[in-house]
Amino acid sequence: MAVQSNPQSTWLTVVQVGAAALSPVIAVVGGWIAWQQVRINRNKLKLDRFDRRFEIYEAAMSFVASIVTHGSVREEWRGEFQLKSRGALFLVSKEIDQYVEELLKMSNRLVYLTIQLQTPLLTDAKREELGSELTNVHAWFHDQWKIIPEKFAPYLAVDDI
């Protein structure tokens, strides 16, 4: 005697099995989408951090370029550099923050030497001493063209973005 199956119950079983199999598939697809969003957000954060660090790099290069080109420091250049480079300690590193401070200190030294050399009552020896130091400060700023990219290079790598 052959067992007759009810076509309706077979169809119901197929639907139930399909529905049961669909839930894990939906969960896997949802997990994959969530993981992709995590990766996208992580890359966005890296890109934003790169942009902020690059602004500090550009500010340093622009500041040095202005000084090298004109041979002097204007207060607005220093102010703009300070504004754009603030946060270097948090965005880049303590080393870069100290380097930014060194650039500002040397720019102050350049201003001081320039003012001192304009003093009319300087002895020839003192004038020569100040002139020599001024030349050294100018040379130091000129050397920063090579040093700034070297200092910032580890923080501006794009291979991990």
Structural commentary:
This protein is mainly α and 161 residues long. It has 5 helices and no strands. The chain has helices at residues 7-70, 75-85, 88-91, 94-117, 124-152. Helix 1 (7-70) runs antiparallel to helix 2 and helix 1 (7-70) packs antiparallel against helix 5 (124-152). The longest helix has 64 residues, at 7-70. The mean pLDDT is 89.
Per-chain topology:
Layout: H1 7-70, H2 75-85, H3 88-91, H4 94-117, H5 124-152
Number of alpha- plus pi-helical segments: 5
Structure class:
mainly alpha
What percent of residues are in strands? under 5%
Largest sheet: none
The rough form would be described as: rod-shaped
Give a quick summary of the entry.
By secondary structure, the chain is an all-alpha fold. Helix content is 82%, strand content 0%.
Key words describing this protein structure:
161 residues; 82% helix; 0% strand; 5 helices; mainly alpha
